Amino acid sequence: MLMESTRQKKVSRLLQRELAEILRQKTPELARGKMITVTTVRVSPDLALAKIYLSIFPSDNSDHILGSITDHTPRIRNELAIKIRNQLRIIPEIAFYLDDSLDYIDNIDSLLNKD
Fold first, then answer.
1. Is the Cβ–Cβ distance between 26 and 68 less than 8 Å?
2. 6-112: which CATH topology?
3. Which residues 6+ apart lie within 8 Å of 105 measured at CB?
4. Which residues of 66-84 are buried (b: 16+ CB within 10 A; e: fewer)?
5. Model pTM?
6. Domain ranges in the chain?
């Protein structure tokens, strides 16, 4: 695996910060009663694609919520473009993925604590 360039890291942090704010505002319409966190953003070397990993709490029904967010991707990308148009010339395509690492940790924890 190649190391991320400094530029990729800066763009990732910018996208993570702005997307977190956009999703915070949209949570009531996309996932009422849930908390959506942008855990990681990975940007391709040409900065054309960003993979956004989301953690949804509580995690029940998270696949449905991810589907809803994916359906709103064009609107979310448009809002992102408005926010970062002065920092980036090309707005990357965005793809949302579920970050289930917290569920995995929870599962391991519960397995270890069984008596």
1. no
2. GMP Synthetase; Chain A, domain 3 (3.30.300)
3. none
4. beebeebeeebbebbeebb
5. 0.84
6. 6-112
In sequence order, the 6+-apart residues with CB closer than 8 A to the CB of 9 are: none
What DSSP element (H or E) covers 36? strand 35-43
DSSP code at position 114: -
Q: Return the structure tokens found at 56.
A: 């949804």
The strand order across the sheet containing 49-57 reads 35-43, 49-57, 93-98
Each of the 115 residues of the chain gets a pLDDT tens digit; together they read 567 799 999 999 999 999 999 999 988 888 888 889 999 999 999 999 999 999 988 878 888 999 999 999 999 999 999 999 999 989 999 999 998 776 677 778 778 887 5
Q: Are 14 and 22 in contact (CB under 8 A)?
A: no
